[in-house]
Amino acid sequence: MRGRPDSPRPSLSRVTASTSLTPTTRYGFLGPEGTFTSMALDAWGPSAQGERVTFGSVDAALTALRSGAIDAAMVPIENSVEGGVSATLDALASGDPLVVVGEVLVPVTFVLAAAPGTTRDAVRAVGTHSHAWAQVRGWIGENLPDAVYVPTLSTASAAEALEQGPQPFEAAVCAPAAARLHGLDVLAEGIGDMQAAVTRFVLVARPGVVPERTGADKTTVVLFQRDDHAGGLLALLEQFAARGINMTRLESRPTKESMGSYCFSIDLEGHVLDERVGEALMGLKRICSEVRFLGSYPRADRQRATIAPLTADEDFSAARAWLTGLRTGRP
Ligand SMILES: O=C(O)C(=O)Cc1ccccc1
Fold first, then answer.
1. Tens of pLDDT along 148-173?
2. I need a surface site. Which of 67, 149, 193, 217 has the fewest CB within 10 A?
3. How far is ligand 1, taken at its centre, from the CA of residue 160, in Å?
4. What dihedral do alpha carbons 283, 286, 289, 295 form, nearest 10°?
5. Hey, whose CA ends up nearest to atom 9 of ligand 1?
């Protein structure tokens, strides 16, 4: 894993994957239009021709995906300020299998918006999504220290509500686009505590075709240990280290079964069709009680994996050919 980002802030970027998704795909997302999730879906090229279906939560969208009511769902999975999005990670780690088929990076910029004519002094309460609130706490603390937080289903639903009439909050924290969409006045812009904040969204589908290998791919897995023992995590990580596989995210999440029981949610560089990744997954399958494969998909930043010496596909094939020779008596 990289200790510190060394690449510039990504622009809103999209990747297209060769999957079973078609122009008639029904795409679910946290609505209404104007959410950061809707922007992620805008940036997902193939969605332009599909049907857009709004939901009130990530869980509701994933439930609809599992039931077949929609074909794909765009959900936030990681934030450069707050880390992993627990609701999404947990919903993917259990229940009927789902797989990630692509990712989108969205720079998140927040404004404080209110019904026309509202002054900043009149703001006693602020409505927004919990992720947004977590990212503007510093600004609110300095500029509206007495403001009360009112949770809403999304940033855009707070903006939409203010357009409709009086609410238990006078201002919304939302994207500039949502303020425009609902005719709100912008009382302050760029109020995020980290100006360079980026949220990573993933497009999730039911298991089917694996997106093709591009050389700049990521694979997501959740690992469940057989038992708790000294060096248990190290044994898992060795499977990656021994094959030159870099991780881009590693988080422990409670399995919710008992106190102290955790699983590990991991993003790694590479595709399940890469020999080194396939071999690592086999190693993990042997030592874990469960390896939940959550998909291989093209990276949004298109950064190609660095292949460590002697970990290329050819190195693994040559070693396998050698073993086959030994086993068949034709070394
Ligand atoms: O409420 C939204 O707009 C969302 O899409 C959820 C969210 C909120 C803040 C940052 C990233 C995603």
1. 999 999 999 999 999 999 999 999 99
2. 67
3. 14
4. 40
5. 132
Q: Is 113:155 a contact under the CB 8 Å cutoff?
A: no
Q: How many angstroms separate the CA atoms of 281 and 272, rounded?
A: 8
Residues 105-115 pLDDT 10s: 999 999 999 99
133 lies in the same domain as 80: no
Residue 306 lies in a domain: yes
Q: Tokens standing for 133?
A: 């609130």
CATH at residue 147: 3.40.190.10
Q: Which atom of ligand 1 is nearest to the CA of 175?
A: 3
At 324, which CATH number? 3.30.70.260
Domain containing 40 equals 9-107+194-206
**Beta-strand pair 83-84/125-128:** unpaired
Interface predicted TM-score (ipTM) of this complex, two decimals: 0.98
Q: Is 126 contained in some domain? A: yes
151 and 255 belong to one structural domain: no
Distance in Å, CA 274 to ligand 1 centroid: 34
Task: Name residue, tokens 């510039």.
Answer: 8
- Are 57 and 152 contained in the same domain? no
- Which tens digits make up the pLDDT trace of 273-304? 999 999 999 999 999 999 999 999 999 999 99
**Res. 234 pLDDT band, cuts 50 70 90:** very high
Q: What is the pTM of this model?
A: 0.91
